[in-house]
Specification:
209 residues, alpha/beta, Helicase, Ruva Protein, domain 3, 2 domains, two-stranded antiparallel sheet
Length: 209
């Protein structure tokens, strides 16, 4: 593309760096902002800047939050004896959209993947063990993507909390093996949460020699 303005070109370049945004889509966005009232554009810019600079991670579950502890963790209406263990913040949004879960969460920040150089020490696993020890946790729900890495992570966690009076379950496999949790439709994900099963049904194979 040939631009008559370096400012437009720079803006298009930055927008096109966003996932799923090509140069043409980026140009439409930039031109839309250019035609908008200055106040609206400044407000848009301020919201993005404020989000990036002020957002923090919950000290309890590692979810994104406006405060030290997120709204889910401080909600007295949630079932704090249940912790849903997930890979990423996007999975919190996916599960919350089903409106079928009323417990709390723990965001690991990924899954164990030796080939990618990701071990337990790179994830928020130790803080999960601390919660199990210090809180009245009755159930851990392993809502990890149904992949080898997801199952390996679930097995690792289950193996290290043996001896604690905690029930460990995993979401039902309505989601195809190898799929990503965030891409599952809401109905499938809702049924997987509702029909969760003991984790031994799926991941004990990794503990066999």
């Amino acid at each position: 593309m040939i631009y008559s303005s370096k400012l437009i070109e720079d803006a298009v370049t930055e927008f096109s760096k966003l996932p799923g945004i090509g140069k043409k889509t980026a140009l439409r966005m930039v031109l839309h902002l250019l035609k908008s009232e200055k106040e609206k554009v400044l407000f848009f810019s301020d919201v993005i800047s404020k989000m990036r600079n002020e957002i923090v991670f919950c000290k309890q579950c590692n979810n994104v939050s406006d405060n030290e502890i997120c709204l889910i963790c401080v909600d007295p209406g949630r079932n704090h004896s249940q912790i849903c263990v997930i890979e990423s913040i996007r999975d919190v949004i996916a599960i919350e959209s089903t409106q079928q879960y009323n417990g709390t969460y723990h965001v690991l920040g990924g899954v164990i993947s030796p080939l990618d150089g990701i071990g337990p020490e790179q994830l928020n696993i130790d803080s999960l063990f601390t919660r199990v020890k210090q809180e009245d946790v009755q159930e851990l729900i392993m809502a990890l993507s149904p992949t080898i890495e997801g199952d390996t992570t679930a097995y690792f966690i289950a193996k290290h909390i043996i001896g604690f009076p905690v029930k460990i379950t995993t979401i039902a496999r309505g989601i195809s093996f190898g799929g990503e949790l965030e891409y599952a439709d809401e109905m499938t994900l809702a049924k997987s949460i509702a029909k969760r099963l003991p984790i031994e049904n799926y991941v004990t194979v990794f503990g066999k020699n």
